[in-house]
Amino acid sequence: MDRTVIAYVIYLLVSIGLTVWVARTLSHNGRIFLSDVLRGNEKLADAVNHLLVVGFYLVNLGFVALYLHTSDTIDDTRGIFEALSSKIGVVLLVLGVMHLGNVYVLNRIRRRGAMDREQIPPVPPQGWTAPAAGA
User: Fold this and answer.
1) Smallest Cα–Cα separation from 15: which of 79, 74, 110, 84?
2) Which secondary structure element, helix H or strand E, spans residue 132, and what is its range?
């Protein structure tokens, strides 16, 4: 079997495995965060969480597929490791950037929700006060 094909197979297995692991971790821990952001609306939190996971899979697996091709020929075992280290390193960086992007957006949504909750007075107004005569 050609060494380039071996590198492709290993790259796909590791990259897809890492993508699935990160997506499951984000899904599991993100659900709690989304529930807080969406004020306890569990159904909406589950739906948004699922949509985010699907988008995460599409973007990352699409990148893995596009980044599969290599123009270099791999002549020895050392070449396999060199090709894999650079390719998997880039995939890890993309996964990290996607994760940080998700956390940033969700944190912005959470802050906006917290600010909206602070706008509502804790006790409704109980009456009307006439303005002072000298004002």
Assistant:
1) 84
2) none
Decide if 73 contacts 4 (C-beta within 8 A): yes
Q: 70-75 contacts: CB < 8 A, separation 24 or more?
A: 70/4, 70/7, 73/4, 74/3, 74/4, 74/7, 75/3
Tokens of 118: 């602070």
Largest distance between two CA atoms of the chain: 95
Q: What is the pLDDT of residue 93?
A: 92
What's this model's pTM, rounded to 2 decimal places? 0.70
Residue listed under structure tokens 């009456």 = 127
With tokens 């948004």, the residue in question is 48
Tokens 């006060």 belong to 129
- Helix axis angle for 77-119 and 42-66, nearest 10°, is 150
Q: What is the pLDDT of residues 46-77, one digit of tens each?
A: 898 898 889 889 998 998 888 887 777 788 88
